[in-house]
Design a protein that fits this description.
heterodimer, A: about 400 residues, alpha/beta, ten-stranded mixed sheet, two-stranded antiparallel ribbon, 12 strands, B: about 140 residues, mainly beta, five-stranded mixed β-barrel, four-stranded antiparallel sheet, 9 strands
């Protein structure tokens, strides 16, 4: 999508991610209201449209979130579902409204509560009308097969994969929004319960609840709201996964390669300029492969990139500075919006205790969605943001 | 006045075989998967897709697919779908026809390797709504 005019982020919100007694609507409202307040908005009338990402919590989720804060009746609220990509897609649609001149100010929210409803001890799976799901397919298995193949081709070990968890949870050590954080030894990670060989429990994102929210607006509105640190949306790309039943290289990821290339072109910002990146590290192997898919390093050099410290403080690009999904957990409709919220806070230097230094100026986020047979993922959404003050 | 009768709707039995368009189990001879070759553009696909996603052709020749393939990757699953007994094993099998099949593997955990040869077999993939096994294609070491 080529942005037709400049779009800015005025404010963001995110809840603590973890096991909540609050349902998705309360979490969504908390994040949304934080985003509204931090955008200096003091009355409901300014919000002209809202999009809400959610995967599993039922119908009219967006209207349920917004009715108690006076938005219902004043703006169209549209619910968005694309599994893990839903929250980011909601943000994309809000950006699109402003970019096209349909609105001056719009909101994208992602909210999800899994733990109030979901039985633990089972894995997320595609829908049962999917041929792979009928034959036992689960998301853990899909990523585990990528890991198995990657290890077979490169000689990487489970210990290597565990480095991703260790790095991301270290990044999250002082992040109050993250669930799983601090120092984890490699032994602890690889000896945790086996989920889908070679992925152990600590290499998988936790099943948790949470919400993220983003207020986007036009240049005129950002001035009107007196936002001191406007964040500029340099690119926002949504794609659907190429479908075919031929052999494909699963140590790559066709949809991420395609989406990141489109984002680099749209934003005019190359991979070497990206300071921080939140990506879809639902499982350790994913982050490792995505270094290569997003051209942070050359094909086959992902592990070296990690081992050389290029994905942490002082490296070429700090990957998962908030701690990623491996630290936050992954409420699937919420994560994409929460990534954008976390990136905005990093750009503004607001991440006390986990702030990347020097303060980053270019932030990218990436979230895929859905295990659909014949595709690597059903959807992918990416955003490129820069500080603009 | 006619006595009110309780009408009990006969429930249709759930499937026990998945799926005749995909898998043929002849009375004599070995089971095979059915590929669908588009008469318009020649693309061979599995599973059956109509129309052909490449050219929207709607006529196909059924082509028996090779019974042996190469195990591209796999995973031993210890946490699985709700209702499935664990552990079970899933894998991607690449057939010589340039088609990749996702299937459950018959065998023991910790025994499969990437790039080894596997062959088609059949077996239970799950239970149906009546609690009976659903038979489908699986692969095992050749």
């Amino acid at each position: 999508m080529k942005l037709q005019r400049d779009v800015y982020i005025a404010g963001v919100g995110e809840t603590v991610f973890g096991k909540h007694k609050m349902d998705y609507d309360e979490l969504g409202r908390l994040a949304a209201f934080q985003a509204i307040k931090s955008s200096n908005i003091d009355k409901p009338g300014l919000i002209e449209s809202a999009y809400v990402g959610n995967a599993h919590n039922g119908i009219v989720t967006g209207q349920t979130i917004f009715k108690d804060i006076g938005i219902c009746g004043k703006a169209p609220i549209i619910n968005v579902e694309s599994a893990c990509s839903a929250g980011a897609m909601a943000v994309h649609l809000a950006i699109k409204d402003v970019a096209c001149g349909l609105t001056e100010l719009s909101m994208g929210v992602g909210a999800e509560n899994h733990t109030l409803r979901r039985k633990s001890g089972t894995a997320f799976m595609p829908a049962m009308n999917d041929i792979e799901a009928v034959h036992g397919g689960v998301m853990t298995g899909k990523y585990a097969m990528r890991a198995t193949r990657y290890m077979h081709e490169t000689g990487a070990t489970i210990e290597d994969l565990a480095l991703i968890t260790q790095k991301n949870r270290r990044h999250a050590t002082h992040n109050p929004h993250a669930s799983f954080k601090g120092d984890y030894s490699i032994d602890e990670i690889i000896n945790s319960r086996m989920i889908a060989y070679p992925l152990t429990l600590h290499q998988c994102c936790g099943v948790v609840d949470g919400a993220g929210a983003v207020v986007v607006c036009s240049e005129e509105m950002i001035r009107k709201l007196k936002i001191e640190k406007p964040v500029k949306v340099r690119g926002s790309v949504v794609t659907s996964g190429p479908y075919h039943n031929k052999p494909r290289d699963i140590t790559g990821d066709d949809i991420t390669e395609m989406t990141s290339s489109m984002l680099y072109e749209e934003s005019g910002i190359g991979p070497e300029e990206v300071d921080i990146l939140e990506l879809h590290d639902a499982f350790t192997i994913a982050e490792l492969l995505y270094y290569e898919c997003m051209q942070l390093c050359r094909k086959g050099e992902g592990l070296q990139f990690l081992r050389d410290g290029q994905a942490t403080y002082g490296g070429k690009c700090v990957v998962s500075p908030r701690g990623g999904m491996l630290s936050y957990g992954h409420p699937i409709g919420a994560s994409g919006a929460a990534q954008v919220a976390a990136n905005v806070k990093q750009l503004r230097g607001e991440c006390n205790g986990y702030q990347v230094e020097p303060i980053p100026q270019v932030a990218m986020s990436h979230v895929t969605g859905g295990g659909l047979s014949g595709t690597e993922h059903a959807a992918c959404t990416m955003h490129m943001l820069t500080s603009d003050w | 006045m006619a006595e009110k009768k309780k009408i009990k709707k006969e429930k249709e039995p759930d499937i026990t075989f998945y799926h005749p368009d995909l898998l043929e189990v002849p009375e004599k001879g070995l089971p095979y998967l059915k590929g669908y070759k588009c008469k318009k553009c020649g693309q061979l696909d599995f599973p059956k897709l109509s129309p052909c996603p490449t050219c929207w052709g709607e006529k196909f020749d059924v082509v028996p697919l090779s019974r042996k393939g190469i195990l591209y990757s796999f995973s031993d699953l210890y946490i699985g779908q709700p209702g499935l007994e664990t552990p079970y094993i899933c894998g991607y099998i690449d057939l010589p026809e340039d088609i990749r099949i996702f299937a459950m593997l018959k065998g023991d955990v910790d025994t499969f390797k990437c790039d080894e040869e596997v062959e088609l077999t059949t077996g239970p993939i799950r239970k149906n709504a009546d609690g009976l096994e659903i038979i489908s294609y699986m692969f095992q070491k050749a």
